[in-house]
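Exercise 3.2. Students should predict the tertiary structure of the chain below and write it as structure tokens, then compare their answer with the key that follows.

Predict this chain's 3D structure.
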Amino acid sequence: MTDSISNSVSIIIPTLNEEENILPLVAEIAACAVSFREILFVDDHSTDATCDKIRALSGAHPIRLIEQDGAGPGLATAIMLGARAARGEILLVMDADLSHPPDRIKDLVAPLFAGTADLVVGSRYVKGGSTPGWPAWRRTVSRAGAALAHPLTGLHDSMCGFFAIGRSRLLELAPQTSGFKIVFETMLRARGTLRVREVPIVFRERARGKSKMSFDVALRFFFRWLHAMLKHLAASRRERGVDLASATEALHPEAPGE
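Answer key:
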């Protein structure tokens, strides 16, 4: 990448008790020969040495630590906090647990620089993507959510948190920070105005630290997402009803004097 392009990429990584993954993650990002302006770690009140590990690396790499204070918890809150603080024009969002492959970063940001896409998503469910090592229940819940979201988003994997988007575009759409699947919510708010591309990824299971995912957590996420989708469908029906009423009124105006 040229200097102008490398200065345009801000990598946003939400963290919560990921002390064992910070060093190997930064090492993998640095080793994948992708130029970037900064790595923004947005920490959600970690109780381990995560923040200390990040600060220790800030002297050798362009790293900034943002600690969430009065803002609500959650991935979407962290991502939007990072987006507002970012100095780059392109945002690359990924998890801290090494589940998202850093060697695919270049493939995610390239279409944005080429002007051929507005949002690029790392997808587990297009040809070439996979989730090795996942238990059957997790694969089933994830696949079901992605399949049900497809008619609304056009994406095979709108549940994934590995994506690249223009900073101004994300801030313009500003998904609700109470949400949990920011790609899904961004697509709903965009209403078909985003040019989207999916890049296949191999989603790796974490090797270090404790997973935040469990069957109970996955089900709660799924039902929260289902509630959001039903609200969107209801709103869309109401809008169609208003449009239909307006069209009917235009076709059948009241007679003069009535």
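Discussion points: The domain at 3-212 is CATH 3.90.550.10 (Spore Coat Polysaccharide Biosynthesis Protein SpsA; Chain A). The chain has a mean pLDDT of 84.
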